[in-house]
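As a warm-up, study this chain.
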Amino acid sequence: MRITFINQFYKPDVAPTGQLTAGVAEHFAKLGHEVTVIASRGGYVDHDHEANSEQQDNLHVCRIWTPRLGKSSTIKRCIDYLVFYVLTFLRMLTLRRQDVVILLTTPPYIAWAGVAHKLLHRRCRLILWNMDCYPEVAERAGAMTPAGTIAKVMYWLNRRLFNRLDHLICLDHAMADLLHHYHAKRDAAGRPLPVTVIPNWEKLADYPAEAQADRWEGIDEHGLKERFVVLYMGNMGFGHDFDAVLKAAEQLKDEPIIFLFIGGGKRQAEVAQSAQSRGLQHVITRPYLPWEQVPQAMAAGSCALITLRDDMLGVMSPSKVHANLAAGLPILYVGPKGSNVDEAVTAFGCGLSARHDQPDEIARFILSMMTNPEQHHRLRISARAAFDQQYNDSQTLPQFETLIQQHDQ
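Now compare it with the structure written out below.
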């Protein structure tokens, strides 16, 4: 089969969608399919990709030039997006007929380039691999007026787009439910769009079960030795809420417990200021680590903290859960029911799924793990089992194979 992926990012870019796209594209190429990837030459990495085109066995990566004006302003970002849109559309119009085009959501609505290809090649099948929900995420983040003119145009585009798709991939059931009004009855006959839920993942080879990370220098720097470490690693942005966790930290301030926040984002300063105003010296914030230190820091953690705002259910699917499970860290999740993290914790019994109005329960759970080593060890085993059974590439890539086979009939 001839299969094309369209996404702004692709490895060696560190963007998660680029790494995930590469995993599936390379897998299909190894199976003997003729795979094309259309991505931007720019990305999160500092250097530009010199080559416009890269060829491996059965895999052709086409790098689209963009001016790379950056994200310092909306106008600059929109210009980059516009150039990528136009050149990707032209590339898809000149590309020979593809059997399947897998479309991601970065930048928003790039999936319409796949629609352009299908207008010329009716037998092509379009699969939307939905990572982001627009305009929902912008509305709930306060960046766009809910039900305003721009939002209405975006909803209209979504309805037209979903009518032209052949399959939809969502990251969790909450996302599928959020998009239900687009795919439930998409034509006059009332036929629903087929939907498959495939969670994101980490590579099994990157997380050997018996691997031992080097001792992290931050253990001494932050006084973590012989402390129970509640570790939050990653973005602290608008989709997250930390108030309940900080209230729990207040209850535990006299215990040998450290709350360690590593990362960045708009809410990092809020967490640091709130902890200082409450006199919580055992709450520590620090910036992102170099990539090579991440496994070391995770090995120093006792449990992993993940949060999600209630109104972000279905809009965001926290990706940090997979690496934490791979590291065998029990999950302390604070957020709404039904998210991908809640599903993992509930299905595998690998932690606590708490709500934002339950700081007492959060504190009790942390204290229970600290004072009961056997319970803590059982939760660690359950966390790793969740990774081995559901959240690694050996489990997810076969699901993509099955999906592609369905469209090769």
